[in-house]
Amino acid sequence: MATFVLQRLSQALFVLLAAALASFVLLRYVGDPVNNMVGQAASLADREAMRHALGLDQPVILQFAQLLRDVATGDLGVSYRFGIPVSKLLMERLPATLELSVCAMLIATLLGVPLGVWTALHRHSVVSHIVLAASLIGVALPTFLIGIILILVFSVWLGWLPSFGRGTTVALGHSWTTGLLTVSGLKALVLPSLTLGLFQMTLIMRLVRAEMLEVLRTDYIKFARARGLPEATINYDHALRNTLIPVITVIGLQFGNIFAFSIVVETVFQWPGLGLLVIQSIQFADVPLLASYLVLIAMGFALINLAVDLLYVAIDPRVRADTMLARTAS
Amino acid sequence: MSRIRFLYLSLMLALVACEAQAKTFRYAYRVDPASLDPQALAETFTLSWLGQVYEPLVGRGKNLELVPALALKWEQPDPKIWRMYLRPNVKFHNGEPFTADDVVFSIGRMKAEGSDMGYTFSTVTAVRKIDDLTVDLVMDKPNPILPMQTTSSYIMSKSWAEANGAAKPASVKNKVENFATNNADGTGPFKISSRQVGVKTMLVPNEAWWGSKEHNLTEVAFTPIQSDATRVAALLSGEVDMVYPIPQQDVARVNATGKHSVLTGFELRTMFLNMDQKRDELLESNIKGKNPFKDKRVRQAIYQAIDMDAIRTRIMGGTSHVAGTMVAPGVNGYDAKLDVRLPFDPDASKKLLTEAGYPTGFEIGMDCPNDRYVNDEKICQAIVGMLARVGVKANLLAQTRTKYFEKILSRNTTFSLLGWQPLSYDAHSTLQDVINTPREKVGTYNVGSFSNPRIDQLTDMIETEIDPAKRQALISEALSIHKAEIGHIPLHQAGLAWGVRKGVSVVLRNDDSLELRWVKVED
Structure pTM? Predict the structure, then answer.
């Protein structure tokens, strides 16, 4: 088991290096940060001097080597835009994004799985058809539009929920802030997490439904019925459990997606998380911050994949860590 | 029983009293100030926001007129000296007194490496402390507009900056956070009580402020809200009292609620088009071996092909001010006689092109930002359509500001849209940075390299002319030569729109600066 985890982690390291290189090369194309870092009064010579001070006039390979050296020593650099160390900025913004994505994923899972099971079991009921039709909205409408509609209805018309921000937050320990402990914080969380979770919920629901329909047709379910086992045991213990492997894979990967694609939702709701920080940094061409963010996201994906692999082992007794190892080695 | 009732009553009264006293003003802008360091970035919004906390020597009033701030009065005992008489009994937010030492220190800091504000005092060669409340600013040659140039040059506390290791502005070279980036100690009417970068900043009135109090606020909450739709929604849902800017398409909707109103004005920024007049062959064109823009008839043909009234009504929602000259009304040196456009006349335009030898027109590349100015990309698209009607095919490249400025400032451009707001609110800046022949520190934004020796000469004279009437005559002469030569094509000044809840009064100043000291919250 430990070997498996170690091997996975070393693979993740290569992924990170590749991600760092790819993001670094891409960032050459977001534009010239220097023109944002000086005011309109700066002369062309001043700008050139700053470009030189930042090392932006050096060959890309040298710049990348410098970046790797800095990262290896734990120095992510200072944000061009804020003049604050990148690590501090990312840590400040991480709690907001993490709370939002976990909430969104919880909503998606806790609603998506039961709805999927129910619509599979009651295939021909009117309610099932309505739920399935309604779920198309989640797939079809773009996230920002859903967000704006929710703001219009619940903030502007009804005045129940805030349209922007995170409400009042409470500091937990040194660097973590949470909005989960105050009423305004919880209220602020509702609309963004619904918006973010809606698409994933639809996806999970449809997947669970399809898998359930598949499993319910298999022989062992028929045998279980023939043995006279209670319906609930058959549906939830035998059938649902066997649908979970693909579902967990999707939930895991979708969590990574939610984390990375919270950019849109965070912009619409002015949610002070990583996504908002990144979208502003792209407009500014804040290279140190963007590079660190992209590597962080790559790291997140690698860790989630590892967690998903470990969950397989827990859920499916046929999958053993050694067989996983053999599979990844081959 | 009566005692309980009494307690209850007094509690209610206390609550009502609290309610009546607490006047929190909540407002939102598109972005957060880039830094709290007043010398980190010379950017209009950051400087205007910091003006609530820090103060200059000479400030600006409700109509942008010069008013005493930290200097009570200023005079020129000699054309090469500006003498500043400082306001006595002023205290920084941390309680330390303000003296001439702070002025000497702050100007030094502005001129230090890493500062973006050095240009404001660039003509000043020495700062002399005469006594604790008098400072002489010494120059090599007369600079009549120094007080105007320095209305955003804020004074910091010497002892505070030195005690916190912020005696020099943050520089990209030393990769550490500067204390002044996220902390402030000014003399202004408001002080920062808490700040989360990019999220929320709380301010409270500075009770020890020297000025007479015109506001009635007890607390201020500032939030950046980037998305236009969300910013408007926050105002309409009552979560904030004031937001700016309101996008043009939402102005009518905000006015229609009956609970909000939109204040409007015109930007001090003039939008215009650059044409490459330097290269012998244009970079992006099908005309080889010559540069059509070197021919004034071609420049005029482009000018007269553009219908600015249509852009005003169709794109700018009727809020823009159509421009005939390169400086906006409200900028010192503006001449209303020059602010008349050549008539929109596609037939004349075609005739001019034929005379110039391009009867079938030609093809050029066009650069435009899509996230820098109000409706920038839409304006460019409209211009492309209008030029097509006279046979000029412009291939539009609209891109994000970082890419756009990278391209045009390296002069790899043929035809582009740009805007200029003089930070000194004086026409000299437009002449020097946009119209003068590009050379060292001059003409940085003259990306089409328009060049006229007489204008260059006039600009130097304007820089040192002390007599206001003579100076205005020189500015008008320079601007009218530029207008006759069609060095650039002026377009318009965009409209300003601030959304305010009923019961809140603010003063809209045409430099788009919200001054908290004039805000009143009635209910």
Answer: 0.85
